[in-house]
Amino acid sequence: MNTKLKFNNASRSLFFATIRKRVDQYFKDNDTSQNANRQMWFKTLFFITGFFTLYGLIISNAFNVWVMLPLTVLLGMFSAFVGFNVCHDAIHGSFSSSKAVNKILSMVFNLLGASPYVWSISHNVVHHTYTNIPGHDEDIEVAPGLIRLSEQEPVNRIQRYQHLYAFPLYGLASVSWAFRKDFVKFFQPKLGQHKIKHPKREYFNLFFYKAVYYFLFIVLPLLVLDITWWQFLIGFAALHTAQGVTMGLVFQLAHVVEGTAYPEPDANGNMEEAWAEHQMRTTANFAGECPVAAFFLGGLNRQIEHHLFPKVCHIHYAEIGKIVKETAIEFNIPYIENPTFFAALQSHYNMLKRFGKEA
């Protein structure tokens, strides 16, 4: 879609001005940095150590295939958890006040099969600005023609069954990222509304770090492990299925659930609401009071707080979430949340059925 979007009086949003003032005051009153604290550094060490330990155990060739397979599934899940808890904050620049620290931690994203540079544009800029706007937010274009996540998308007969096959398809998200998605997005003339002129070094980085990933996760295992080629393929598929399903479910439960909106601009590209109000109507939390979800999902279960304050480390979302919710109620703005992961999963399933019925 070529129409340039403009939010309504985005700079004059009283709601956002109020909530930002209150959140700033929270950090000032508690003499707390909005970046990582000791708890966050513990999580970082836990997930990164777990990732490298699992990889080392697998590549050591010390176990038979029946042990390596569950280790590979765990490695896939830890890959997603590293992305959620470490790289996501680092690429947003919220992990540390030091650009160097954020840069170093964001580079770990390459070891998950994804480009931190491409993600910084498609996610930080495009998705966070144009959330749930059909034709602009590429995050709701998961598998065009197969999975329909908004009423504005074209329909076809197969989509009537999408509530049955969507979840297995989410398992392909990771392998698509490693072999296709980054290349497609990098060489598109535009990402969202943004024409991109990539620095020359990013052409090198894209191909170099993809090559590093292919060596570590394809070439080296085939060279050192005492397995057949078909056993390798099963393990590689298990790794990416575990990583893809973990990623896909968490991302979809934040925006494609009952209650979230899919606003469209008018003929001139004007959005009805200011940016912050738009975020509140297109984003949902889930399992906000669950400490297990908070630990493993890197604050992505609190997407409302993340979308309003992407420069705040997710370790603080539980506390600032109280301020966000109270202010939303005060301004009569929806604060969409599902109490548990499974409630959000059911809600997403219902949305898949709803969008599929029209086919």
Could you characterize the architecture of this molecule?
The chain is mainly alpha-helical and 359 residues long. The protein has helices at 14-29, 38-59, 65-92, 99-106, 116-129, 162-170, 173-187, 200-224, 229-252, 275-282, 291-296, 303-308, 317-330, 341-357, and strands at residues 190-191, 194-195, 284-286, 336-338. The strands form two sheets. The chain has a two-stranded antiparallel ribbon. Strands 3-4 form a two-stranded parallel sheet. α3 packs parallel to α9. The longest helix has 28 residues, at 65-92. It is globular. The two termini are 23 Å apart.
Q: What fraction of residues sit in β-strands? A: under 5%
Mean pLDDT across residues: 92
The number of helices is 14
Percentage of residues in helical conformation: 55-70%
Largest sheet: 2 strands, antiparallel
For the largest sheet, list the strands in their spatial order. 1-2
Brief overview:
The chain is mostly helical. Helix content is 59%, strand content 3%.
Topology of helices and strands:
Elements: H1 14-29, H2 38-59, H3 65-92, H4 99-106, H5 116-129, H6 162-170, H7 173-187, E1 190-191, E2 194-195, H8 200-224, H9 229-252, H10 275-282, E3 284-286, H11 291-296, H12 303-308, H13 317-330, E4 336-338, H14 341-357
Parallel strand pairs: 3-4
Antiparallel strand pairs: 1-2
Helix pairs in contact: 1-13, 2-3, 3-4, 3-9, 6-9
